[in-house]
Fold:
Amino acid sequence: MGIATKTIDCRLIVFAKAPIPGQVKTRLLPLLEAEAVSALYEQLILHCLHTAVRAGVGPVALWCTPSIEHPFFIHCSEKFQIELHQQTEGDIGRRMACAFYQTLKKADSALLMGTDSPSLTCADLKEAKRVLQQGVRAVIGPTEDGGYVLLGLRQYEPQLFEGVSWGTESVLEETRERLRRLGWHWHELPERWDVDRPEDVKRLISEGHLELKAIRSRLSPNLAFPLQEGE
Structure:
């Protein structure tokens, strides 16, 4: 067998779950019914993929769980002309590590982003690619809640994903500490926010990131709020 050669300088990995009602964004259920949460999550994925493709930093691949056979993932592949890959089993750290390992065998650098932060911009992705091309080993896109929405690497390093308290407000600092122990220099993008809690949906609507009129009409009555003038 031949040895794989790197032919592309940067690849973009997008992580997503299948939008199955009751299995995604469960912390939003006090605000929306399960079907509406799933519809919102679909819009977040589509927005993320649109940003990823429009940024033009390199080929985009959608890494899926639990299966690439879900009709929505197939729709995304056809709509954006992107590859689908199956996420491995295990916690989010193990799944990200596997995606980076596989991708960095084919590219000089890789950016991995989630679908939870519509405030992440094309400019953010271009900046992340630029600093990696300049020789910085890692780039992080921090979030307000202590996590990160983007991680970019020039080389695979499993220590970045082992023993991290995933899903907590300490993820970002734990990752910084691992980078320090490795002796790596890294770059941080402007802080962004993600959509995890009911108040984040209100912020999402008020800042106009997505087209959510249909979802707005399905807000729980005790948490609903009026549309902006002209909407």
In short: The first strand starts at residue 8 and ends at 17. The mean pLDDT is 89. The domain at 10-216 is CATH 3.90.550.10 (Spore Coat Polysaccharide Biosynthesis Protein SpsA; Chain A).
